[in-house]
Amino acid sequence: MQSLPFSILLVFLPLSLVTIGGGQSAIADMHRQIVEAHHWMSAAQFVDAFAIARLAPGPGSLLATLIGWQIAGFWGAVAATAGIFGPTAFLIYGVAHIWSRYEGARLLRALEKGLRPVAAGMILAASYVLIQSLDSGWLGRGTALVSTALLLLTPINPLLLIAGGAGCFVGLHFLALI
Amino acid sequence: MPDALAERPSALQLFLIFARIGLTSFGGGLSGWMLREFVQRRRLMSEEDFLNGLSVAQALPGVNVTNMAIWIGYRLGGRNGAIASWLGIVVPAAFVIVLIGSVFASLAGYELSHVALSGAASAAIGLSLAMGLTAARRVPRRLFPLAIMAATFVAVAILKWPLLWTVLGFGSLSVAVTYRHG
After folding, report:
1. Is A97's Cβ below 8 Å from some Cβ in B?
2. Are residues B84 and B10 in the same domain?
3. CB B101 to CB A49 under 8 A?
4. Which chain B residue has its CA at the smallest distance from A154's CA?
5. Which residues span the domain enclosing B79?
6. What is the ipTM of this complex?
7. pTM tops 0.80
8. Contact B58 A58 (CB under 8 A)
9. A71 interface with B at CB cutoff 8 Å
10. Do B98 and B162 share a structural domain?
């Protein structure tokens, strides 16, 4: 029987290497493992953690830190952080190290262009999984779509948008509509 | 002005610069911020060096911001610079997110905080979806890349395949085809 922080580390280590195009892309798989496979959190707790991670400053992958902390306290947070950031940190360190000697421009371009559709598919999948986990029904889904449209069409500050979403729901709650 | 670069910063300075960037960065747009800080304002590295790093940071897996921190840290301060920069961007922000998380957890008993958080989550999903749509817009309008994108979506969202194998499979196929076509 391995300790909980160690199990958390084992979940996040491989996820680190598939965070192409930013941490967003790994969220669908985090959800699958944390909620569906290990039952460490409920779907609602996961979405709450996601919202908090978007409210907080810093790299978006700190969602892993928060999840680790909520599951297993301090060492859970350390394990999740080391897992999600560790492998890629060594990878880019290695590339920075050999960059001056090795001109990998064409391969890098192919990597970036070739991974683009995969990253797009993964981020869309993450959004899909998150929308499925919303427990606020059509109101939540509608809010998500309105928020998407605002972000795509206006230069709105994302933080303001998230606060606005919270404010909207609280307002509706006071009007006894939800 | 690549030939008029300023003196190299110490590891502690790198830590502090990245800690500030990490703690004040909300909702993305960070590479522009770093460009201003390191290239334009402090003149610590040339624009070309920075942009090389940015394309490497985007091509490799990992969060672009933390990749960029390691790249810049390594170029400016070797191994210690890279470690200090990474710690700077991750650790202070990690403490803040745990702090915010525990504040919300202590309010979890109140129904109102759950309502507020579920509103925040709904709006925050918009960030994810908008980013996904922006990424999808950058995919070339050709059959192969579009098919790869659709297959990845179905594999991850509907079939719930493990991400690692999905990315290794579709990713290497896509990269190989892109590489062959130059």
Report:
1. yes
2. yes
3. yes
4. B130
5. 1-106
6. 0.76
7. no
8. no
9. no
10. no
